[in-house]
Amino acid sequence: MTGTTDTPAPPRPKPLLLLRLLTLFYDLWPMLAVWMLISALFNAGYYLAGHGEREILETGSPLGVLLWLCCLLATGAYAVASWARGGQTLGMRPWRLRVTGIDGATPTRTQLLRRFLVGIPSLLLGGMGFWWAWIDRDRLTWHDRASGTRMVRVEK
Questions:
Q1: SS (H, E, C) the chain
Q2: Of 5, 29, 37, 79, which has fewest CB within 10 angstroms of its CB?
Q3: Strand partners, 98
Q4: Euclidean distance between the first and final Cα of the chain, in Å?
């Protein structure tokens, strides 16, 4: 007998998948308002540039692509600024979720930007990056793992 004691392994963190999806849904609404404002500004500029009031801004046109890029940029600015300021977006607050570094430290802006950029394909590929948390040994999504961050639930 060696006298060693078997200590149980710490419990695996929860993937928080439902809460992540609820957060995305909640954050959709303020971002939708921002996207509508950006679109209204683009359309007003399109009209003031001499186009008819019944003409529309085509999605595939260079100006339409620029509109999409501006909406993406606004979304990224909102997410990264919110995470950097307090670790939470508006949608994360009711669910008491917070973005932290893997080690629990405050993530850098570079990590947060990488989290946002990897989060785009993570969501657009059928949410595969989110579903990945169910099988990941540390319950991390693609964007968590790529950025060195994680989402944690804050106790009351």
A1: CCCCCCCCCCCCCCCCHHHHHHHHHHHHHHHHHHHHHHHHHHHHHHHHCCCCCCCCCCCCCHHHHHHHHHHHHHHHHHHHHHHHHHCCCHHHCCCCEEEEECCCCCCCHHHHHHHHHHHHHHHHCCCHHHHHHHCCCCCCCHHHHHHCEEEEECCC
A2: 5
A3: 152
A4: 44
Cα angle for residues 82, 90, 37 (degrees, 5° grid): 85
Residue 26 is which amino acid?
Y
| pTM higher than the cut 0.85 | yes
**Is the sign of the CA dihedral 77, 81, 87, 93 positive or negative?**
negative
